[in-house]
Amino acid sequence: MKIGIFDSGLGGLILLKSIRQQLPDYDYVFIGDTANMPYGNKSREEVLSAVKKCIDFLIDKECELIILACNTVSAEALRKLQDSYLADNYPDKRVLGVIVPTVEEIARDEDIKRLGIIATPRTVDSQVYIHKLAELRPDIIVYQNAATDLAFQIENDNQEKISRLVGEYLEPLIAEEIDALVLGSTHYVLAKDIIESYLPKDIKIISQDNIIPQKIKLYLDNHPEIESRLSRKGDYQLYVTKSNAIYEKLNSEWFGGGQLHEIKL
Ligand code: DGL
């Protein structure tokens, strides 16, 4: 059995890269629902219905554990999936999101008092980061900004627009004198260098490629009943619902050019 990684696109691919660096022995199946991206500008119902198809696909591909490497889906659909869809259809499978592990890491950092978050409109509207942080660190003041078009421009590798948008979206957060900035969409990990170039040096960047791999490792250490069912051939398969040249390029740069398929769901 394998580990499934879901995202609307490139954010999940860069998380898969960092997860494989830390946990290279397991077998992975990635699905990027590129035909439906950006998820962050869709309604909650649309997000839920799109992600269910991807979960069915990953389970059909023998995934035992699925990582929703997408903040938007973790914010808007994870709880519903766990409480009803999974429980009704695949009670022995596990689906994990990326927001709670990220919030746990933020909460451990005593130096953070003023936190900025850029995320998709859906994630910002859900207020999940604010609610979860309030449970662990009510002293942290949170400032959010919806980066409406950023994930889409990253997916399309439009460097000029990415740079302009990053400046626009960060400006109000920097003005609030934040101590740390959460990249609240996995897509933004791909723009980390540009984001760094706009941020004053004393503002920490909280990036999920540095957090999620170790959290998965911890989860597997704590759940031997799941870990023991995972196969270990160091294999991976990549699927997208609409192909785009950047996937071919990153597949060879990051993974050595293995299997990449376009599928219809
Ligand atoms: N990567 C997704 C996230 O972390 C968002 C991209 C999208 O809007 O599709 O929120």
Tell me the layout of helices and strands:
Elements: E1 2-7, H1 10-22, E2 28-32, H2 44-60, E3 63-68, H3 71-76, H4 78-89, E4 94-96, H5 99-108, E5 114-119, H6 121-126, H7 128-136, E6 141-146, H8 150-155, H9 159-175, E7 180-183, H10 192-198, E8 204-206, H11 212-222, H12 224-227, E9 236-240, H13 245-255, E10 259-262
Parallel strand pairs: 1-2, 1-3, 2-9, 3-4, 5-6, 5-7, 7-8, 9-10
Helix pairs in contact: 1-11, 5-7
This protein binds D-glutamic acid.
Catalytic activity: L-glutamate = D-glutamate
GO molecular function, one term: glutamate racemase activity
Family: Belongs to the aspartate/glutamate racemases family.
Q: In the CATH classification, which architecture of the largest domain applies?
A: 3-Layer(aba) Sandwich
* Number of DSSP strand runs: 10
Sum up the overall morphology in one term: globular
Measured distance between first and last alpha carbons: 21 Å
Largest sheet: 6 strands, parallel
Query: Which CATH C-level class of the largest domain is it?
Result: Alpha Beta
Number of domains: 2
- In helices, the fraction of residues equals 40-55%
